[in-house]
Structures are given as structure tokens and as C-alpha cells.
Amino acid sequence: MPRYFSEDHEWIEVEGDTGTVGITDYAQGQLGDITFVELPEAGATVKKGDAPCVVDSVKAASDVYAPVSGTVTESNAALEGEPELVNSDPETGGWLFRLTLSDPAELDGLMDQAAYDEFVAGL
Amino acid sequence: MSDTYEIDDREATEPEVLTLPLDVWHRARGGRMVEFAGYWMPVQYEGIIAEHLWTRESAGLFDVSHMGQIVLSGEGLDAAVEAVLPIDLATLKLGQQRYSLLLDEQGGILDDLMVQRWPNDLYMVVNGAMKWDDIGHLREELPDEITLNHLDEHALLALQGPKAAAALERHVTGHYPLSALTFMRFGTFEIAGYPVTISRSGYTGEDGFEISLPGEGAEAIADLLCGEPEVKPIGLGARGSLRLEAGLPLYGHDLSPETSPVEAGLTFGINKRRKGIVEEGGGGFPGAERILAELANGAPRQWVGLSLEGRQAAREGAAVFVGNEQVGTVTSGGFSPSLERPIAAAYVTSAHAPPGTALEIDVRGKRLTATVTALPFVPHRYHR
């Protein structure tokens, strides 16, 4: 399944018209210990660039932006009891929410893994 | 994703970011450096929660060399300083340290600081972000006979935690043992051949020490202390969460010219004699009229601790409500690693300040339930 990355350090993995969104390992490392995740409700409509999700670390709250537009279908319920999953397993078990893409063409504006790795190396 | 560390606008707009004596040392130990008070400072090494808990159970070494170390001397020193600070210097004896406040004419807080009585001088430690303003203010307010010496070549290290005394003792020599110091006492010692001034004080609520030393000795002394099994270096992040648990306010967040010492609960910073009538040495400090009136009649609002329900934290600037009425504003907030739940501090109108009062905090349009809680959240363990 193709995976795309944003310059704001979100990843989205796409299967058909469904995307799974999380933050990258680089992002969790920058945020430090995550203590709470505010997740969007199923049915919420998000536009690319909206912040439907907030990740709390010990020091700060950080917005997670929607890398594409769509309708939220599901959030990762495991994070309610175990927000530290975003630290320990950010790119698989620590996913944040799923959405149905309303405009798959928006994926064209995102990076692939190689481009993102290069982007992070330049930071 | 956007990252927003809590750093003052004022601090972030300093034109040039300076380095401190331990800059290379922090980077070599994996410290993540951020700009703070105009300097590159380590915000964390292994992680804020781990560093926080380590300090509570063992000992942590904090580099606070960004803070301003100032020595005042000259003819008529005590009277001159008493005109600027609400302190009673007649009761501050050699070897004693005391907390005090720089105040403006309206009784607003310009900075909070520590004062030590040296044999011929007074030594002060002021906040890093405020030190240039403080030095300007003191030069303007103090008479010409008073000399102000900024120890800008000195470093300042804090060793904090229940095992700090045991670790530090192994490296300290002097005319008397380190154990002679109790909370808020200081003395001069040697570590690794360098002359140091050590006070038994800190900003975590734990027993601990603050060590003023020549900058060129900082790496050697930091290496010695971190070579002890009890000691790890700790970043600014854990410093912030430790001090909030200890109910200690942070200038620029919890204290400002808009807040008075009575509102902030810092009346212990106004010594007894200065609270009395003028004929007996009362008043006579900046803002005395307002502060003495607030001491007599109470302040309209108070700085209080808040315990939050759930896991989500409230941050600086969040509005505090009772029903539809805003009754206050959060000045510090975050997750408490020791209590494993969010805590905050806020100014609230005095009617809603008693412990146990139920309040709500608006966080991004959501109301979080909070209860006023007596400070500190985590009991102090000072060595008195």
C-alpha cells in the first residue's frame, strides 16, 4: 500500500479510497513523551490542512494536520488508554485516525518515503 | 504537525543566540538544544518524564548558567537595597539566602530573585530572561556609591533530588562539611580545585544545591558530578514540570508586572518589618502602598493550583470558567509525571480560590473539569 508524507511530518497510508493517518517517527522524537491524544469523531469532515487531532506532550500541545481532505471513519481507540503508543510505535500501532478521501488528487502534493527521508535529513 | 515549546516571545526575539560554558558538554551528552532566554539550552536528554522521575528519586544536574549572578557592594549597601526590595536585611545574616522580589511603583513584579549575605557584599541570582532589564533597573535605582558587578563569566549548576547531598559530598572540600548547610544557607567550598559557592536551595521542591562556579570549571565539575551513579543531567523540560508540581511560579508566565506578590502568594518575599508601619521600618519599597493595602484587605484574585480530570492538559492562556462567567486564566499547565495526571496553575478571582472549588477550563472549545488544589501538588522535601 502506498504511503505518503507531509512536510508537517504526518504520514498517510492509502488503500482504495481509505487513508490511515499518523505522525512520523521523527515527529514523535521531536515532541517527546506523549501524554494524551485528542482524536476526531467518526463522521467529522476535514479539509486538507485542518487540525482534527491534537497530540499533548509533557510540555506542549501540537496540532496534527489532515494531509488530505475527507470524512473520518475511525480513530485509534487504543490511544485513549495508551497514548505513549505514538512514541513507541508511531508508524504502525500508533496510527491516529482513518478517513475516506474526498479528493485523491491531493496525494500528488505529498512526498514518498525517499523524498521524506531526504527532507528530514535536511532539517 | 506543529511544535510549540513554551518559550517567551520576549526570549525568542533576542537578536543573537548565545552559548553557555557547558554548550559542547550538553551536545556531547545528547541534549536537545533549544533557544531559551537568549541562549542555547538543553530542553531534554533521554526524555522529560524519565528525567523528571529520576530527579524525584535520585539526583539531577541542571545547567542554569543563563541566570544572572550579580554582586552589589558599597557604602550604605543595605539601606540602598532595602529601597529597591521589600527585604529586611537586618535579619539576613552571613551565610543566609533569602527569596525577594523586584517591584515596580504599582507593586507589579519585575522579577523574582535570591539574595545571599556575603561578608562585604550582597549576591543576587535573577532570572535569565530578565537579567539585562534587572541590571538596568538596579543601576538606575541604586545610588552611585553602590557598585554592581555582573558575574557573566560564572556558571550556575543545580544538583537536585534526595541523593544530591550524598553525591555532592564526595567532591566538596571546605572549612566545614557540606552537611552544615540547611535549606537556604550557603557557604564557600572547593570542587576539583575551583572555588565555588554552594547554597542549599533549588527549584524542584526536593532537597538540593545550587552551585556558583567559574565558567572554566563547569565542564570538569559537571563531569565529576555526572560520574556519580546517582546523578544524570536534566533538561529545561523536566525543570518546568518539577517546579510546577512544587507549586513554584515561573517569571514571565506566572509572574509579571501585571501580578502583585499578594495575588501570587509570595508574601513571604516581603519581610515582616517591611509589612509594618513606616515609623518601625515598614513600607518604603516600590509599590508598598498597593501591597500593604492588599495584605490588609486581600487581593481581588489569587494564584492557585488546579487538578484536572482526565488526561488532557490545559496550557498557559486557557480561560477558567464557572458556568458562563470567566473567573480566571491559566498561567502554567502540563502533565505531572509524578502524579500521572494533568495539573495547572491559574489566577482566579478570590471568591473561587479556596481549595476544593470546582471550576472549568476551556481548552480548544472543550470544557475540562478542574478543582482548586492547595500548592504544592507534590510535597516539598527541603532539608531544614
Structure description:
The complex is a heterodimer of chains A (123) and B (384). Chain A is an alpha+beta fold. Chain A has four helices and nine strands; from the N terminus they run E-E-E-H-E-E-E-E-E-H-H-E-H. Chain A has helices at residues 25-31, 78-81, 85-88, 113-121; strands at 3-5, 10-15, 18-23, 34-38, 45-46, 53-57, 61-64, 70-75, 97-101. The longest helix of chain A has 9 residues, at 113-121. Chain A is globular, with a radius of gyration of 13 Å. The model of chain A has no long low-confidence stretch (mean pLDDT 96). Chain B has 384 residues and is an alpha+beta fold. Chain B has a seven-stranded mixed beta sheet, sandwiched between helices. In chain B, helix 3 (48-57) crosses helix 8 (236-245). The termini of chain B are far apart. The chains are: A alpha+beta (123), B alpha+beta (384). The interface between A and B is medium-sized, with 25 and 26 residues.
SS-derived structural category of chain B: alpha+beta
Helix content of chain A: 10-25%
**Average of per-residue pLDDT values of chain B:** 95
Count the DSSP helices of chain B. 10
- Which strand order spans the largest sheet of chain B, edge to edge or round the barrel? 10-11-12-13-9-3-14
DSSP strand count of chain A:
9
* CATH A-level architecture of chain A: Beta Barrel
How many DSSP H or I helices of chain A? 4
Strand line-up across the major sheet of chain A:
1-2-3-9-8-5
Terminal CA distance of chain B reads 46 Å
Q: Strand fraction band of chain A?
A: 25-35%
Radius of gyration of chain A: 13 Å
CATH topology description of the domain at 9-63 and 153-245 in chain B = Gyrase A, domain 2
CATH class descriptor name of the domain at 9-63 and 153-245 in chain B: Alpha Beta
Sketch the topology of chain B as an H/E string, one letter per element.
HHEEHEEHEEEHEEHEEEEHEHHHEEEEEE
Mean pLDDT across every amino acid position of chain A: 96
Q: Helical residue percent of chain B?
A: 10-25%
Low-pLDDT segments, ≥5 res of chain B: none
Low-confidence stretches of chain A: none
